[in-house]
Amino acid sequence: MIIVNTDYVSGKEIETIQLVKGSVVFSKNVVRDIFAGLKTLVGGEIAGYTEMMNEARQKATDRMMGEAMMLGADAIVNVRFATSTLMAGAAEIIVYGTAVRIKK
Asked: Cα–Cα distance between 77 and 68 in angstroms, integer?
């Protein structure tokens, strides 16, 4: 599956299918919060949260790709990510784009 953030697939003619999306809601982990709190005292990257965000983005992307595959898509164009806070300690990552077929 080709996934791009442009509105085209370079060198290919495409046919639009429809909007597809994937999302995941995640919450903080108490153990990560303790280490994150300590890390803020000395500064630097909070690796536990970086890993958590990467996993959440990948899961949302996998869900979007699954939806596109069910529609018979070859690619997803104009892909965007968004994050929103749902409540204290919980957030949603959503990824969305346009499922397309590459014309042969």
From this structure: 11
Tell me the domain boundaries of the chain: 2-102
Residues 6+ apart with CB under 8 A from 74: 1, 2, 100, 101, 102
Q: Is 2-102 CATH 3.30.110.70?
A: yes
Look at residues 22, 14, 7, 10 and name the one whose alpha carbon lies nearest to residue 74.
14
- With beta carbons less than 8 A apart as the criterion, state whether 6 and 77 touch: yes
Taking the chain (104 residues) in runs of 10, the rounded mean pLDDT of each run is: 96 97 83 54 70 91 98 98 84 96 93
Structure tokens at 7: 């509105």
pTM of the model: 0.84
**Sheet of 2-3: strands edge to edge?**
2-3, 75-87, 90-102, 14-27
